[in-house]
Write a structure and sequence with these properties.
Helix 8 packs across helix 12. By secondary structure, the protein is an alpha/beta fold. Strand 6, helix 7 and strand 7 form a beta-alpha-beta unit. The relative contact order is 0.14. The chain has 12 helices and 14 strands. 39% of the residues lie in helices and 21% in strands.
Length: 316
Amino acid sequence: MVNIENFTMKDTRSGFGAGLMEAAQKNDNIFALTADVTGSVKMGDFKAAYPERFIQCGIAEANMIGISAGLALSGKIPFASAFAGFISGRVYDQIRMTVAYSNLNVKIGASHSGITVGEDGATHQMMEDLGLMKMLPNMVVINPCDYNQTKMATIAAAEYNGPVYIRFGRPSVPNFTEEKPFIIGKADVMQEGNDVTIFATGHLVFPALQAANALKEQGISVEVVNIATIKPLDTEAVVASVKKTGCAVTAEEHFLNGGLGDSICQCLSRNLPAPVEMIGVDDHFGESGTPDELMAHFGLDKEHIMEACQKAISRK
């Protein structure tokens, strides 16, 4: 069982910056590229330490992806990073044709993702990026839950040969996991249970654990599985958990269409049909507000996860 009582507060984008620095210290082929947001994506330390391997592309995300493709073809390992709304939606064609189609060793770091961008509003609250990226052949899609996991996932991405999309955020969130090697494509059972499984990803993993603890007091045994790798999905772990519990809840800071919930439902419909309730943003653009206000407004919190668990159990 994960201890969620003792934790610090850290932003996941800083985990990306720390992981990039550690990977760069081990491998001289790693380059960092950004689109006029060096500080926002935490590449400042990299720029200071390795100026010859840092490329400031300006507000030209499509060009940045093209440069990254060229670097990959030259044997380098480029990490291109910007806000999620710009580096996934704005340059989807370039990612599709020059990175995914060509299966190039390009890493895409997407910061300021999801609803927790907060006051920046709907234009910056990218909640369809996981769906866009998981639909691309060859693309690995990672959505870590906290600082430690983001750091280790970034290091793992540097060692993986192929396109990788890593999603992280701006706000400080609980940093509660151990700093351990990240294995791409493997789910992490954070708490075992028998009555219902919560498959959570990103910023929703911690509220999922809170919900599980609260439901335990009501006599409900909840299994919590952290799905940090959206693609490839750990089908074996998903099926094994639901075979035990008989129903599931998915929780994500993303549109319901195209997100983790879609992947879980596809997996279960093919392997083990079972009741599934989904927590996410239901076909609605974001709004301005603080991250906490927005998470509550859109039902991405402990209370709504608890309600979804109870509903899933009632459908068994």
